[in-house]
Amino acid sequence: MTDGPTTGKRQRMLMALARFVCRRAIPIAALALITALASVIYTSVKLEFITDRNALVAPDAEYNQRFLKFTKAFGDQELMLLMVGPAPGPIDNPDYEPPVPGELTRDEMKQAAAEVVAKLREKPEFFPLVVDRVDPDSFGGTRMLYMPEQDLESINQQVKAGKPLIDQLAEEPSYPSMLLGMRRGIEEGSLNDVPDDAELNRAGSEMAKLIGRVHNSLSAETGTPPQKNLFAFDSSDPTLDKDGYFFSWEGRLLYVAVLPKKDPGALNQVQEPLAYAREAVAEVQADHPKLSLGLTGRPVIYSDEMAASGRDMTIATIFAIIAVGLMFIFAFKSFVRPLLAVLSLVLALCWTIGATTLFIGHLNIFAMVFGVVLVGLGIDFGIHLLAHYRHGLERGLGVRDSLIEVYREIGMG
């Protein structure tokens, strides 16, 4: 085929390029495959993902500037939470509202939390901070400042009612003296101030607890302080725990705060710590079938979102490529040529991500949707090219002349 008199300069350049490609088809195809493979390898090693959602916000926004200053001053404070509650748990159970747990259930919840915490602390490189409880003794003499007003009123009443007992123990701190003080308190009670049934029940309950603590103290191992927690006060607020664990929702849920170590260059920044934490939770869950253990918090939600988005977009991209190839096959009633067009599209996608890595070096979370978009947009030129090529063959042109004609007609876009 010769250049026509109306062929422009750009068309002649494209036709010359087509002739060159036809003469060097095998080396050029091999070079295309090698560069595509090199692009994929280079991208897998060098490409970074900016998964911080603050990168999607205007950097000059006042609220974002305040947040960045806070992060710079105090570090990353995005905690994930270990939640422990009575089975079956809130997952797939929107009406989850168990009864307020009793003392035995609370003790098992604390035991399960302690077991998970022990496993997490074995990996300080994953979890630099694990806060499971606050030692009540660390408050010293200020502990009562954090108690509800209702509890303070109850303590005041108990102190007044227990004055004979307190006076007796002040004179002689011993168990016999304590029992003598209890007897004096009963004997000195005024007959004119007869308690009602509720007060009698409360007083009987407190006396039973005190006697039980005396028994436990006398049965304790050698070396244990003989009167430790003898007069411990049980708060009316079920979220306040005597051992310092964190409860909420009237004591139905126990939670532990965990700071995971993030990998800023990874698409899923807490993938490894979260996988280890979930494995630890699953092991402890198997030993406590009456409880429900789980992880939540922003890092957990973000990690699951990134994993689901990456998986779904990979499936969508593969599906798009397969669907485009099948449509090519049905539309052009051929198998080899449409697959070659799809292969060219895949090579172009590899070059695109390689060039992105080379010149930009990073992508944000929005870039995950570009795979499907590039498949839809990138195949357009292949459709035109294949249609014009088949038209040239139908006009009686050979393979080489048909390709040259295609570049002359549509090579300029």
Describe the structure.
- This protein is an alpha+beta fold.
- Helix content is 58%, strand content 8%.
- The protein is built from 13 helices and seven strands.
- It has helices at 9-23, 25-46, 62-74, 103-120, 149-161, 163-171, 175-187, 197-218, 271-287, 298-332, 336-359, 370-394, 399-410, and strands spanning 48-50, 80-86, 129-131, 246-248, 253-259, 291-297, 362-364.
- The strands form two sheets. Strands 2, 3, 4, 5 and 6 form a five-stranded antiparallel beta sheet that branches. Strands 1-7 form a two-stranded parallel ribbon.
- Helix 10 runs parallel beside helix 12 (370-394), helix 11 (336-359) crosses helix 12 and helix 12 packs across helix 13.
- The chain starts with 8 loop residues before the first helix and ends with a helix.
DSSP strand count? 7
Kindly state the mean pLDDT as a whole number? 81
* Shape verdict: rod-shaped
Strand content bin: 5-15%
Share of residues in helices? 55-70%
